Amino acid sequence: MSIPLPRLPPQCDGYRLAVVADLHAGSLSGRKETEWLVRHLNNLNADAIALAGDIGDEHVNDITRRKLEPLSHLEAPDGVYYAFGNHENMYGIEDFRKVFRTESPFKETIVTLENEHAIITPSGMGEECRIAMVGMADWSGTASHPYTGQIAPDFQKAIRSTPGPNGTTIESDTPVSSSLPMIMMQHEPANMKNAAKDGVGLQLSGHTHGGQTWPQHILLAGFDAISGLHEYDVGSKDGPSYLWVSEGVVGWGPRLRFLCKTDLAVLTLRNPEAMAAEGLTPDTHVTVSTFGMYLSLVLVPLGLLAYLIPAICWTKKRVQDRRSRKSEADSAGKGTEKDIEEVSESDPVASV
C-alpha cells in the first residue's frame, strides 16, 4: 500500500512502515498469538513498526507480562512505536505505562508514546530524511467517568513533548517543526479532519476490527472509517492527508471474523511529487469491511421492518380478537339478564 505523505522529502521516498493493532493479549489471546505476530512482523522487513493500540487486554500481572514479552523481540532498524488504546485504559493504564516505559525488556525495545512524539531518523536515507511520529492518548479519556489514571488526547502537548528516562515526559515550549512529515497513532479512528488541519499527514488507527462479525458493522457507522485507506483534503498547501484503519490481528469476543480480515499492513510512504510523476494514485477503494458496514445500514433496518410488520399485525389481530370475544361475552351476558327478567314478569310464581 503506497501513501503520498505530505512533506515527505524525496530522500525518504519508499520508506516502509508496518502497522498493526488490536492484538488484545490477555484474556482473549495468549503468548502463542503474540509470538505469531512478532514472527510475521519481523518477516515484513519494515523500516519501522507502529503498534496502534489495544495490544494488551487484561490487568497486568506476571501472566500478562509473559503473554506480552515476545513484543520485545520485534525488529525494525528505526524502532518500534506504540500508542495505547481503550483496552489498556480499561484494564489499568498506570500499570501498562509502568510495564512498557520502565520495565525491561520493553523499555529498551519499544518507544511508548502517550501525548508525545519521537523523531524518526532513517539510517542510510540522508540527513534531510526525518519523520515525526506522534502517539496520542485514547479518546476514551474524554469520557465523563474515565478509568483510573486515564488522560485525554492532547495534540498540542504531544507535539511539544517527548518521552524521557524512567517513564518521564520531557516538555518543550517549541513544537515539532511544521516542515516535517507527521504520522499520528490514534487508536480510535475519529477527529481526522481536525488532525489534518493540524498538519497530520497520516493517522494510524485500529479499534474497529473491521466490524469483526457482520452485521455488527452497523455499530461502527459513527467513526471516520472502519477499514483501509481514506483521503482527507482540508485545503492544505501540502496536499491531502490520509487515515489508515487496521482491521486488527485478533479482535475481541468470539474468535470469529466475517466480512473482515486479519490485518498486518506495510505502508510504503511516498514523496507526493515522485508518486505523481510515476502516474500512481493511493488505493482508497471501498474495502470488504466498509462494504459490510454499508450493507448493514440497509439490510439491518429492512430486517427489523420485516420482523416488526408481521409482529405488529399479529399483535393488532390478537387485540381485535380479544375485543371481539369480550364484546360477544358482554352481549351474551346482557341477553341472559333480559331472558331472566322476561321469565320473572310472565311467571309470578318464579319471581316468588
Describe the protein's topology.
Blueprint (H helix, E strand, L loop, with lengths): L1 E3 L10 E6 L4 E2 L4 H13 L4 E4 L4 E2 L4 H7 L11 E3 L3 H5 L2 H10 L3 H4 L1 E2 L3 E5 L10 E5 L19 H4 L2 E3 L5 E3 L10 E4 L6 H6 L4 E4 L22 E5 L8 E5 L19 E6 L1 H6 L10 H59 L1 H4 L1
Parallel strand pairs: 1-16, 2-4, 3-5, 4-6, 6-7, 9-12, 12-13, 13-15
Antiparallel strand pairs: 2-16, 8-9, 10-11, 14-15
What report would you give on this structure?
It is a single chain. The protein is α/β, with parallel strands linked by helices. It has helices spanning 31-43, 62-68, 86-90, 93-102, 106-109, 155-158, 192-197, 272-277, 288-346, 348-351, and strands at residues 2-4, 15-20, 25-26, 48-51, 56-57, 80-82, 111-112, 116-120, 131-135, 161-163, 169-171, 182-185, 202-205, 228-232, 241-245, 265-270. It has 10 helices and 16 strands. The strands form 4 sheets. It has a 6-stranded mixed beta sheet with strand order 1-16-2-4-6-7. A 6-stranded mixed beta sheet has the order 8-9-12-13-15-14. A two-stranded parallel sheet has the order 3-5. Strand 12 (182-185), helix 7 and strand 13 form a beta-alpha-beta unit. The model has no long low-confidence stretch (mean pLDDT 91).
Structural classification: alpha/beta
* Poorly predicted runs of 5 or more residues: none
Through-space gap between termini: 103 Å
Shape: elongated
What is the count of helical runs? 10
List SSEs in N-to-C order: EEEHEEHEHHHEEEHEEEHEEEEHHH
Total number of strands:
16
Question: How large is the radius of gyration?
Answer: 30 Å
Largest sheet: 6 strands, mixed
| Mean residue pLDDT | 91
Strand content: 15-25%
Q: How are the strands ordered across the major sheet?
A: 1-16-2-4-6-7
Helix content: 25-40%
